[in-house]
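INTERNAL AUDIT FORM
Audit reference: QA-55
Scope: verify that the stored structure record matches its stored sequence.
Auditor: D.O.
Record contents follow.
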Amino acid sequence: MTAPASLLDHPLPARTAAPVLAALVLLPLVAAALGQDFYIGLASRILIFALAATSLNLILGFGGLVSFGHAAFVGIGAYAVGMLMQAGVTSAWVGLPVAVLASAAAAALVGAVSLRTRGVYFIMITLAFAQMLYYLMVSLKAYGGEDGLPLAGRSTLGIGPFAGPDLADDRTFYYAVLAVAATCFWLMQRLLNSRFGHTLQALRENEQRMAAIGHSPLRTRLAAFTLAGGMAGLAGALLANQSSFVSPSLMQWSQSGMLMIMVILGGVGHLWGGVVGAAVFLLLEEVLAGYTIHWQFGLGAALLAVVLLAPNGLMSLLGQRKARA
């Protein structure tokens, strides 16, 4: 007999995940058959931002930590790849781990300071660190300064005499991004359903009670903050590869705000919240920008409608539908 799932469990049933994964695998083939290769690049961008938004959801939705500087870790991952390429290191087997480690290390340092505060002070400290990193990169003229750093190309997957798949091809790059994003999403689900994930969510609900039974709020949250930073750095490394360009604007507070909107739009604390929010946000942006240069107005109106109709995000609509059935 299977034990019932608790409120802290987040199942990932195959009947939901398998069709989504199959559709994503077939998307480039369908786009190529219809002569719409543009959508392969758009889908890659959505997957990358879904990865970044999911990393923010780990600390915002499941940890209750409103970080307003999360984009800084995306930027660090992007700059790690850019700096390595400028030094002649193009291997993805080097660039991506370095990006993850650099972002995770930065997140650990920021978290060690900011997690000792609460509420608006935590928000302001994370924002301050992000802005410090932004102005640091603006001042580093060796890496493009305010103008940004163009990359010679995308990372390579070759090992020794073996060339490996060519990431310069958009379709190959899409499948590489899909493999990374799907793996991270599965690991995220496993993490949330582990003892660590349950502790993190329980701390969000009642910190005093968890501390009273022997759990360390700072240690648990710092571990989650570091993991989220590393995942955001991975998204930044992929974003740098996709656009072949790195800019300090990746670290600006507006980018952190955009990631937060994606999570809120999809559903704070929902496993699929970051993925759904990133997809809806970027598709709305793409569609509205095709009609008017004032697309931000339409995007704002659409977001307002979603917030009024589904205050807990789009994923909550699915929950309401199941409850009525």
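Auditor finding: record pair retrieved intact. The radius of gyration is 20 Å.
Action required: none
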